[in-house]
Design a protein that fits this description.
The structure is a single chain. With 324 residues, this protein is an alpha/beta fold. It is 37% helix and 27% strand. It is built from 10 helices and 15 strands. The chain has a 7-stranded mixed β-sheet. The longest helix has 20 residues. The protein is globular, with a radius of gyration of 20 Å. Bound molecules: (2R,3S,4s,5R,6S)-2,3,4,5,6-pentahydroxycyclohexanone.
């Protein structure tokens, strides 16, 4: 039985707990949260211990692995402590809110000499996205991608920087994953609303000459994530999520939900199974710390572009051999 600790008992931590409870061969033995009551409530669902000492959990060598789902700005310190303590890690995205901290995670893993961290870019486990990936060979050379990402965030005002770091980073990974290419330059434009941002548009030039656009909407009517890939011989795009079409009173509607927990429920579940299998093997397999760093470099340039008003280059360092 593999022993797992979960750091963060908010909505994302509880999503991981729910999915880990379904996986045979693993047991969540401790849940940590700065709010001990939140830790107790979540731990109570799975018979685990509760603590407010997250730092103790990520350094607990009696554990095999930890899930880090605490606030974004705490991820890096916890991830580095876990890596240095010999634990395997599933860390939510972004790996940190700044580039230097993400680089330190990669440095820690490179110093260890083998991959132990998976970052929560779970679109790679979503059936609609996987079907797109599977068809790429039929559309010729990929020349253009269009990502659309709508958050029903009407009540939550966020800055452009936060949207880029916390949301658009998923689309950046989708672009890198589906093209196998890196982003070379980005240009960001946005539309404000009182107290925050409404729309963010990122144009990304790829190293091999392709182009990707990311349209993000933080005021949306519902939650929706799609991607369309255009190649020299054809186009492939994500199919709509399978939801019943309800027709009443002369109108048809399809429920799309208002958050990622509904839309990506199966992807999170699959992520839990893949990650725990990698824990059993002792070797991380999913999206890597390097993927987290490369995406963060793009986001960092996109933030700079928003503020400079011009396109900015992405100066990615050489990829350590560990990630080949
Ligand atoms: C959120 O944190 C997520 O991870 C979702 O997948 C993403 O779609 C959303 O925009 C983020 O805020």
């Amino acid at each position: 039985m593999k022993r797992i600790g979960v750091v963060g008992a908010g909505a994302m931590g509880r999503e991981h707990l729910k999915n880990l409870a379904e996986v045979p061969g693993v047991e969540v033995v401790v849940v940590a949260d700065a709010l001990i009551e939140a830790a107790r409530r979540a731990a109570g669902q799975c018979g685990a211990d509760a603590t407010d000492d997250a730092d103790g959990v990520v350094r607990d060598t009696d554990l095999d692995a930890v899930v880090i789902a605490s606030p974004d700005e705490t991820h890096a310190a916890f991830a580095i402590a876990a890596i240095e303590s010999g634990l395997m890690v599933l860390c939510e995205k972004p790996l940190a809110t700044d580039l230097r901290s993400v680089a330190r995670i990669v440095d820690a893993e490179v110093a260890l000499g083998h991959r132990v961290l998976q970052v929560g870019f779970m679109r790679v486990y979503d059936e609609a996205h996987r079907q797109v990936a599977d068809e790429l060979g039929t559309i010729g050379t990929v020349r253009q991608l269009r990502c659309v990402h709508r958050n029903a965030n009407a009540g939550c005002l966020r800055s452009v920087d936060t949207v880029l770091t916390g949301s658009v980073i998923h689309d950046v990974h989708t672009v890198r994953w589906l093209t196998g290419d890196e982003v070379a330059r980005v240009r960001t434009t946005s539309v404000a609303r009182p107290g925050g941002v409404a729309f963010v548009h990122v144009v990304a030039e790829l190293a091999n000459g392709g182009i990707a656009t990311i349209d993000f909407d933080d005021t949306a009517f519902g939650y929706e994530v799609t991607v369309e890939v255009n190649g020299t011989h054809g186009t492939v795009m994500t199919a709509p999520a399978p939801r019943a079409i309800v027709s009443v009173g002369g109108e048809s509607r399809r429920h799309i939900g208002v958050d990622w927990f509904g839309r990506f429920a199966d992807a999170y579940r699959r992520e839990a199974f893949v990650w725990t299998a990698s824990v059993a093997e002792g070797k991380a397999t999913g999206p890597s710390a390097w993927d987290g760093l490369a995406a963060q470099f793009v986001v960092d340039a996109a933030v700079r572009s928003e503020h400079s008003g011009v396109s900015e280059s992405v100066e990615l360092p050489d990829r350590p051999a560990l990630y080949d």
